[in-house]
Amino acid sequence: MAERYLICPLCGFEFEPEDALCAHGCPLRAHCALVRCPSCDYEFPERPRPRSWLRRLLGGGEPTGEGECQAMSVDQLGAGQSARVLSLSGDRNRLAVFGLVPGAEITLLQRRPACVVQVGQTELALDRAIARRILVQPPTAAHQRPPAETTTEAGGA
Amino acid sequence: MAGRHQPQRAEPRAPSGAAGGSWPASAVPAAPAAPARVLLVGNPNVGKSVLFKNLTGRYVTVSNFPGTTVEVVSARARLGESEVEVIDSPGINDLAPASEEARVTGELLRRHPEATLVQVADARNLRRALLLTLQLAETGRPMVLVLNMLDELAERGGRIDRAALERLLGIPVVGAVAVRNHGTERLIAALPRARPPAVEMETMPAGAGDYQRNRARLARIQRILSACYTMHQPARPGLAVRLGFWAMHPVKGLALMAAVLGAVFWFVGLLGAGTLVDLLEVGVFEQRLSPAAISALDRVLPFPHQHEVASVPGSLGVPLTPVHEIELAAWQVEAVGTGYALAPGAQLTGGQQALRFAHDFLVGDYGALTMALSYALAIVLPIVTTFFLLFSLLEDSGYLPRLAILVNRLFRVMGLNGKAVLPMVLGLGCDTMATMTTRILETRKERVVTTMLLALAIPCSAQLGVLLAMMAALSPAAAVAWLALMLAVLLAVGRLTARVFPGEAAEFLLEIPPLRRPQLGNVWLKTRSRIGWYLREVIPLFVAGTAVLFLLDRLRLLGRIAALGEPLVVGWLGLPREMANALLVGFLRRDFGAVYVLDAATGPSPLLDPLQIFVAMVTITLFMPCFANFLMIAREHGQRVAWAMTAFIFPFAFLVGGVALRVGRWLSAI
C-alpha cells in the first residue's frame, strides 16, 4: 500500500500525517493547514506551496535539513530511560498489536544481550534491527526515571 | 482461508439463517437464556485455559510461553440450567490472519457463527485486550469480557472501574482470578446478558491496512482507558520482578542459566538417569519382574531347559556428583536371567521348537518383555519423566523466553533467532516432540534449520541419560571434549544449513511474560500429558524394534548385516564388530541404540576402551534420528527434506566419528 510521508522542512524528519502533532483542543482543528513535526515541533503547511519562479531563480525554499533532527532510535536510549514513540517503520503492525504505536510511552529496560522494552505492562524483547527502526523523542530530564535493575554496564556500548 | 479477514460492521443484529447456515434461529439468545456455545478468546497467556477448566471441569495445556495451545480444545459443560459447549481458542494478539493461531481463531469464528464470545483479558494489559475487543466487536457477536488476574493488577497498584468499562463497551464485564477459581459463577451468570459491543466503528479509508486500523483502535482505547483505568507503579518492584530482570541480565542471567542447567543436570542426569534408572532397571526389572515373567512363561511354554541364576546387586543412594553418592541401602537378590541351557542330550520336537521360539520372543535376549519393556519403562521412562517435570516447571514459571534472550546472539550465528532455543531445549527431552514444536518459529528456514539441528546434534533425554552413564567411564576432560565437539557441530552445521537453505530468519520479537511461581497442579498435568504422549509413541516402537531385532537374530541376518557394515564400523570407526548391531538398532531408535552401546561399554566385561567409548558416543549422538523423528520430519517439512537430512546425517555421523578416532589416537601417541 502506498504510504504518504511528510518531510519536515526544518530538520528533514520523515513522518506520516497521522503522527503529525497538533495541540489537543486547538480551535482550528480541521481548518488548520499546518502540521507539526513530531521531532522538532516546527510547524509547516502540509502541502508545500509551489515554489515561485522568483524563488527558483534565487535558489531558496528547499528543505534545508539544518535544524537539529531530535529523533533518536530506541537502542540509543540508556537502560531505564523512558521516551515517547515518534514513528515506526518495517512491519509496524507486529509492534502495534502490543500497543507499541507512535505516541506510546516506552521504557528501555536493558540493551544487552537483547533490547527489552516495556510498553504498558508488556515487556518485549527486540532485535537490535527492530529497535533501530523505532524512533523516539529524546527523553528530557523530567522524563528520566531512576534506572531499574539492569544499569551499571548496560549504559555503555 | 487465503484472503484477509474481512470484519463485518458491528450491528446488533441476530445471526440469521443467512449468516449461520444450518443453525436454527432458536439458538440465538433472544430471551435471557444461556447460549448453546461459548468461544473463549484472548491474548496469549491470560489464563484462558484455566478458565476453560473452571467452566468445564477439565484441564488443557496452560502455559506461559505464547504458542503452546495450538490445538483447539472443546468440552461440554453444564452451566446453570443448560448444557453449553465451551471451545478454547489459541491465544492471539491480532485477529488479522498473520499467524497460525489467528488463522485458527478466525476459522473457529466462521465455523460457529452463533457462538457467544467470552474474551479473557489480563487486567494488567487492558490496552492489548481492548484492541482485541474492538476487533471482535466488528464481527457483531454477543460478548462478555472477563478481567482476569485482578489480584496481580492490584499488586501492581492498578485499578479498573468495571462499571465504567461496562458502560463504555456496552457488554458485561466480569472480574476474575482464574487460578483461584474466583469469578467463574459471576461469568456463568453474565453469559445470558452477552450482547454485541456498542462501540462506534472507526471510519477508515478503503485502502487502510491492519496497522492503520489498529492505530485508530488504539487511539479510541486511549480514551476508554483514561475513563476507567488507573495505574501507578509500586515504588519497589517485587522479588519476582527483580528475578525476572536478573534472568535477562548479561551477567546475572548467565549465572542464573548456569544454576538452572546445573539443577537440570543433577535432577535429570544424576537422579533420573542414575538413581531412578538403577532402582527400576535392577531393583524392579532384573531382580523381580524379569524372573517372575521367566518362571511364569516357563510354566506356560514348557521345554526342557535350565535358566542361569545369578546374584544381582542393587543399591539406592542420593547422587552428589557423577562419581560420588550417599548410599542409603544396598542389597543382593538371587535372580533368574535370560540366558539358559537346554537339558543335556534333549532333542526338541517340532512343538517344543515352536514353544521355544515363543519363549525367546517374549523373554529371550531380545525379548519383548525382558528387553523392550525393561528398556522403555526402566531406562527411558525415569529420564523422560524427570526431564519433562523440570521442563514444565521452567515453562510455567516464564523462564524460557528469558533464556531465548540470552542465547539470541549465539543463535544468530546459525541463522536462527533466540526463539529457537525452546524447541532445542525440549529436544533434550524428545527430539520428535521438539520437531513438532518448531511450528512456533516464524519462517520456514528457521523451522528447517532447527529440525536439522535437533535431528543431528541434540541428544534426547533417553540418549542423554545413556551418554551420561557412558561419560562416567571416561575422564572429565573427555566429557568436556564431547560437549565442545557437539557445540562445534551444532554451530558449524547450523551455519551451513542456514547458508544452503534460502530465506531470512525473522527478526526477533518476543513477549516476555512475567516470572511467576509455577502452579504445581498445572506443572504436574502438563508433565503427565507429555509423558502420556511419549509412552504412546515409544512403547510400540520399542516392542517393534525388539521384534525386528529378534527376527534378524533368528534368521542369522543380524550377523550378516553387521558383517556388511564391518569395514565401516571396524575399519573407519575402530569399534568392535558387535557395535554394528548397536548402530543397526540405533536406526529404529537412537536412544535404543545408545542403551545397547551402554551395555557394551559398562557391562560386566567391557568391550570398549575409553577412546572407543568416546567415538561411539560421538557417532551415536550424531547418528540417524530415531525412526519416529524421521516420520515427524516428513510430516512437518515433506519427504524431500526428510530424505535430504537423512542423506546428510548418516555419512556425517560416520565422518565425525572417524575423525574423532584419528585425532584421539594422534593425541594419545604424542
Summarize this structure briefly.
The complex is a heterodimer of chains A (157) and B (670). With 157 residues, chain A is α+β, with helices and mostly antiparallel strands. In chain A, 10% of the residues lie in helices and 23% in strands.
Give a description of the structure.
The complex is a heterodimer of chains A (157) and B (670). In chain A, the strands form three sheets. A six-stranded antiparallel sheet of chain A has the order 5-10-6-7-8-9. Chain A has a two-stranded antiparallel sheet with strand order 1-2. Chain A is of the alpha+beta class. Chain A is elongated, with a radius of gyration of 18 Å. The model of chain A is unreliable at 141-157 (pLDDT under 50). Chain A is built from three helices and ten strands, in the order ββββαββαβββαβ. In chain B, the strands form three sheets. A six-stranded mixed sheet of chain B has the order 2-3-1-4-5-7, with helices on both faces. A two-stranded antiparallel ribbon of chain B has the order 6-8. In chain B, strands 9-10 form a two-stranded antiparallel ribbon. Mean pLDDT of chain B is 79; it is low at 1-31 and 61-69. Chain B has helices spanning 17-20, 48-56, 100-111, 126-137, 150-155, 162-169, 184-190, 210-228, 239-246, 252-300, 350-363, 368-397, 400-413, 421-427, 431-437, 444-457, 461-471, 476-500, 520-554, 557-572, 579-588, 590-602, 610-622, 627-637, 639-669; strands at residues 37-42, 73-79, 82-88, 116-122, 143-148, 158-160, 173-175, 229-231, 305-319, 325-342, 509-512. Chain B is built from 25 helices and eleven strands. Chain B is of the alpha/beta class and 670 residues long. Helices cover 57% and strands 12% of the residues of chain B. Chains A and B meet through helix 2 and strand 9 of A and helix 4, helix 8, helix 9, helix 13 and strand 11 of B.
